[in-house]
């Protein structure tokens, strides 16, 4: 089961989750029995592909306008006791067999590489955007005339 027990536990900011996604890879804690195996990746169907209505127990929405990177439809998701079949767990790096036994088959740190790459790109591109904003403001400051006289004194009669 995947469950969002409260608002702060909701998934926020995933790209295209707001309106355009029928399925999503959700990072959630894997709990088998009473044992917690940490964060793992699951493929979750959010909407019916024919009607585009949310699946039972799934709520998603758009987070609205942002200060930047508006080409991406970032959204939020909440889950109310949504059953995830074992076959929908991405088991390239770990495995849960039919008996519920968990085993690691790869380096689990690689699960975060995509998220970290995108965040790194946003930070690296923000310096370019900041530079462009500085250039525009400097050009404006150079040509703007603030006072009636050149020296900023009261106009002489």
- Biggest β-sheet description: 3 strands, antiparallel
- Quickly count the helices: 1
Helix content: 10-25%
CATH homologous superfamily designation of the largest domain: Butyryl-CoA Dehydrogenase, subunit A, domain 2
Report how far apart the termini are: 82 Å
CATH class of the largest domain: Mainly Beta
Q: Total domains, how many?
A: 2
Radius of gyration using CA atoms only = 25 Å
Instruction: Give the percentage of residues in beta strands.
Output: 15-25%
Global geometry: elongated
Q: What structural class should be given to the helix and strand makeup?
A: alpha+beta
CATH fold group of the largest domain: Butyryl-CoA Dehydrogenase, subunit A, domain 2
How are the secondary structure elements laid out?
Elements: E1 11-12, E2 23-32, E3 35-45, E4 58-62, E5 75-79, E6 94-96, E7 102-104, H1 113-143
Antiparallel strand pairs: 1-5, 2-3, 4-5, 6-7
Describe this structure in words.
- There is one protein chain.
- The chain is an alpha+beta fold.
- It has 2 domains: 100 residues, Butyryl-CoA Dehydrogenase, subunit A, domain 2 (Beta Barrel), CATH 2.40.110; 38 residues.
- Helix content is 20%, strand content 25%.
- The chain has a 3-stranded antiparallel β-sheet, with no helix packed on it. A two-stranded antiparallel sheet has the order 2-3. Strands 6-7 form a two-stranded antiparallel sheet.
- A hairpin with a 2-residue loop joins β2 and β3.
- The chain starts with 10 loop residues before the first strand and ends in a 14-residue tail after the last helix.
């Amino acid at each position: 089961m995947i469950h969002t027990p409260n608002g702060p536990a909701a998934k926020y900011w995933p790209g295209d989750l707001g309106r355009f996604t029928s399925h999503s890879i959700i990072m959630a804690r894997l709990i088998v029995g009473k044992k917690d195996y940490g964060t793992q990746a699951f493929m979750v169907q959010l909407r019916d592909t024919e009607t585009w209505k949310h699946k039972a127990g799934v709520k998603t929405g758009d987070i609205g306008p942002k200060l930047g990177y508006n080409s991406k439809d970032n959204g939020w998701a909440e889950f109310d006791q949504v059953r995830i079949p074992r076959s929908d767990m991405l088991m390239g790096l770990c495995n849960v067999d039919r008996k519920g036994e968990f085993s690691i088959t790869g380096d689990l740190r690689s699960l975060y590489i995509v998220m970290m790459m995108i965040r790194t790109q946003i930070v690296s591109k923000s310096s370019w955007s900041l530079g462009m904003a500085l250039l525009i403001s400097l050009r404006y400051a150079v040509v703007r005339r603030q006072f009636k006289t050149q020296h900023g004194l009261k106009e002489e009669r």
